[in-house]
Structure formats: structure tokens, C-alpha cells
Amino acid sequence: MTQSKITVGILALQGAFMEHKFHLQKAIRHASPGSPLDTTKFEIIEVRTPEQLASADALVIPGGESTAISLIAERTGLLEPLRQFVRVDRKPVWGTCAGLILLSDEASRTKKGGQELIGGLHVRCQRNHFGRQAESFVCNLPLPFVGDDEPTFSAVFIRAPIVEKVLTGADATADVAEGVVRAPKLDVDNYRHAQIEVISSLPPTQGKEAGDIVAVRQGNIFGTSFHPELTPDVRLHGWWLQECVLRGNELRR
Q1: Alpha-carbon span 95 to 97, nearest angstrom
Q2: DSSP-based three-state secondary structure for 149
Q3: Are 200 and 194 in contact (CB under 8 A)?
Q4: How far, in Å, CA of 37 to CA of 44, rounded?
Q5: Which residue out of 97, 106, 122, 125 is catalytically annotated?
Q6: pLDDT tens, 170-183?
Q7: Strand-pair partners of 123
Q8: pTM for this one?
């Protein structure tokens, strides 16, 4: 049985939105015959206005410059509709690198003057954790959540953030620490029910018991520190479409 059309938006204000568009389209084209991705009609659109956002069933927020994306979103009247989309309507959303920062409830190491956050993901994200552009790197990450026998994924980290802390309701009501910005109007009650799933971390470095967290999922929100759109590998895009978008929309019905 063919399902109704699902519209997937890509926030196209700044950053690698075209690369995400190509990867989503490729993941759909290469879907296994008879699979949910194959039997569902998708429309991939670029989102620059509140009207375009309102037409989307799911959204990708790409990597780029998080302060620039938030500033443009604020000036174009998109910031509050984005908060509604993510935090109230709870439609499926995926943020990569800058997108992960914007979706976090808190962010540290922000530029002077701070920045606006969309929020919804109960974590504190540290910007530019690995340093400047020259410290960019690629590493092979296991993807057990995609499939037990899947090969590792070549993850591209460019001025990447990490999840430095999973927040609690107490964190959401405490005073904001110096150098940290917080999304407005956090739903403290939601902290009692939401569960953060850490789905990928880097190997521990010397002196650390655990590696840096680079991929998390909480309900409708999926966030990655790295840029899957900058590799030829579309497995993560296919997984997100099937696991988060299709299944997420089924659960919301």
C-alpha cells in the first residue's frame, strides 16, 4: 500500500543545505525495492520562510555557522516558527554540526554577545570543541543503531561541537553559567519524561573514561556533531528518513 506524500524540508538559510538535499534524494532513489522508503512518496523542499516550514512534515538543519543561521532566522521571522515546529509540534528534525548547536537547550563557548537557540534537545553543546578549521578531521564511527553488521561510517568533523552535558530539570531552572546561552521558555516538565539516547561517541582519549558524545536522539530530535552530507555515504540519511521521519509520523497520527 502506497503511503501519502511526506514533505521533508531543509533549512536553507546558510550552510550545507544543498548537500543534504542531494543525499536525501539519493537515499530515496537507492532504497531497496518494496521498502518503506521505496513505497513512500517524498518531496524534498528548501525552507526559507515560515510558510515553507509550515508545509514540512520533517526538517533538516544543516551544518554551517550557527550564529549566522540563528541571526537570519530571527530577521526573517523563522525563529519562533522553528521553536514551534521542534518543541511544540514535535515533528522529526535532524541537526548536523551547527544544527545540533541550534537544537540544544544550552550552548557554551558562544561568540561575544551570544546567539539565539531553537532548543528542544536537553543537552549543553560546546561549540568548536576541536578547535579551528585546521583541526578538522575524519574518523570511522560504528553505526550499531543503523544495523549490527553495518561497516563504520567516515564521519567528517569541521569546527565541530560535542555534547558536553545531558541536562536535567534542575539545570534548566538554575542560573545560566558564564559563557553559556540558553534557549528561552524551556518546558521543565518535559525534562521528567524525555529520555536522551547517546547513540555515538568518539573513542576515549588518554585520561578520559568515556569519549566525546557526537550523536544523540531524544524523541523527535536527532543530532550529530559531524557532517554526513560531506561523504558519499547516504546510510544515515536513509536511516533518518525511515526510522525518524516515517516511524515518527506514524507515531504522531
Answers
A1: 7
A2: coil
A3: no
A4: 13
A5: 97
A6: 888 889 888 899 99
A7: 166
A8: 0.91
